[in-house]
């Protein structure tokens, strides 16, 4: 069974090597020591959210403070392609369900999108609080999936902002896929951008998922004009909470991440 994962502050793990001691405290330490009651001799992993993983054994526990002995370090290097889920805001918790599952199956970043037909509106204090929930959801899903990389959560953008982002991605050699039920091209038939060698720029692949009411014709026109392509997942129409994670899983398989 894989070891439970706990998140460290960015940059906190770089200097550590096998045999060193790492102290897990703060919220993560309390969760490990008080909530989960981890004890001496148990194995846990600590990750920095950027691909670095410490394999450790608990040496001592004092309430919310754990002394860990590092047994190994591993770096899970990116493959040169960044999968980004552009998720339209949706009512209830369907958008949060989408980003949770997408994180578990391997998305690299999530981008909240205020679509024309989104019932939910992020504005003012609500925008900050709602994004904070997305960040918490992604963080929990990262730990659940035992990942070493923590997907970034962007600031909410509107249609104009999304079209500008699509144009930037297209100009840089990336790809934007708008999932649409009327598309003729299947997702499996897309030509994915090839990852470059060491030092080459990351190729972004955006997967755009609309809200419950779908993506408007005006939005489709704006996104395709900016360089996006339309694609379908299959013969059935999926919920906004389902389409993105399935697309991310299929693309992850094609990229060899699930080999």
UniProtKB/TrEMBL annotation:
<dbReference type="InterPro" id="IPR015947">
    <property type="entry name" value="PUA-like_sf"/>
</dbReference>
<dbReference type="GO" id="GO:0070475">
    <property type="term" value="P:rRNA base methylation"/>
</dbReference>
<dbReference type="GO" id="GO:0070042">
    <property type="term" value="F:rRNA (uridine-N3-)-methyltransferase activity"/>
</dbReference>
<dbReference type="InterPro" id="IPR029026">
    <property type="entry name" value="tRNA_m1G_MTases_N"/>
</dbReference>
<keyword id="KW-0963">Cytoplasm</keyword>
<protein>
    <recommendedName>
        <fullName>Ribosomal RNA small subunit methyltransferase E</fullName>
        <ecNumber>2.1.1.193</ecNumber>
    </recommendedName>
</protein>
<dbReference type="InterPro" id="IPR006700">
    <property type="entry name" value="RsmE"/>
</dbReference>
<comment type="similarity">
    <text>Belongs to the RNA methyltransferase RsmE family.</text>
</comment>
<keyword id="KW-0489">Methyltransferase</keyword>
<dbReference type="InterPro" id="IPR046886">
    <property type="entry name" value="RsmE_MTase_dom"/>
</dbReference>
<comment type="function">
    <text>Specifically methylates the N3 position of the uracil ring of uridine 1498 (m3U1498) in 16S rRNA. Acts on the fully assembled 30S ribosomal subunit.</text>
</comment>
<feature type="domain" description="Ribosomal RNA small subunit methyltransferase E methyltransferase">
    <location>
        <begin position="81"/>
        <end position="251"/>
    </location>
</feature>
<keyword id="KW-0808">Transferase</keyword>
<dbReference type="Pfam" id="PF04452">
    <property type="entry name" value="Methyltrans_RNA"/>
</dbReference>
<dbReference type="InterPro" id="IPR029028">
    <property type="entry name" value="Alpha/beta_knot_MTases"/>
</dbReference>
<keyword id="KW-0698">rRNA processing</keyword>
<dbReference type="GO" id="GO:0005737">
    <property type="term" value="C:cytoplasm"/>
</dbReference>
<keyword id="KW-0949">S-adenosyl-L-methionine</keyword>
